[in-house]
Specification:
The protein is 47% helix and 11% strand. It is an alpha+beta fold and 141 residues long. It is globular and about 40 Å long. The relative contact order is 0.22.
């Protein structure tokens, strides 16, 4: 089963848009999906472009996860710029279907903003992923 996931990741990376940088590695993608699943069950996520943009405009901080296989790409091209302007770290993951499944929805999801409060259980995993996102970011925070 682990072999299927390995080839699955490589297969999904083939369909990623050109602008999808920084793209999370295979290991980081698994960690991100785990974090999204925990945050979704604790109700600390904003799903979809409309909700994420609204939250960013209102000044919410957190960690943004963007799917790399969105078509048309114009739907999400403004999100990295908004995140950089507001010092919100972000990473791309290869699949909108996997991101939607991790967020406990039946539909594919183009982006998610994780906005944990103090009561969030897995702040250690959140901190690790945010640090990794900041280390590979095109703009240093």
């Amino acid at each position: 089963m682990a072999e299927e996931n390995d080839t699955g990741y490589d297969e999904k990376v083939k369909y990623v848009n050109v602008i999808s940088q920084p793209l999370a590695s295979k290991k980081t993608t698994k960690k991100i999906h785990k974090l999204v699943k925990k945050a979704a069950s604790a109700k600390f996520v904003r799903r979809g472009v409309k909700e994420v943009v609204k939250a960013l405009r209102k000044g919410e901080k957190g960690f943004c996860v963007i799917a790399g296989d969105i078509s048309p790409v114009d739907v999400i091209t403004h999100l990295p710029i908004m995140c950089e302007d507001r010092d919100v770290p972000y990473l791309y993951v290869p699949s909108k279907h996997d991101l939607g499944a991790a967020a406990s929805t039946k539909r594919p999801t183009s982006c998610i903003l994780i906005n944990p409060k103090d009561s969030f259980d897995d702040m250690e995993l959140y901190g690790k992923i945010v640090e990794e996102a900041r280390s590979v970011a095109p703009i240093k925070y």
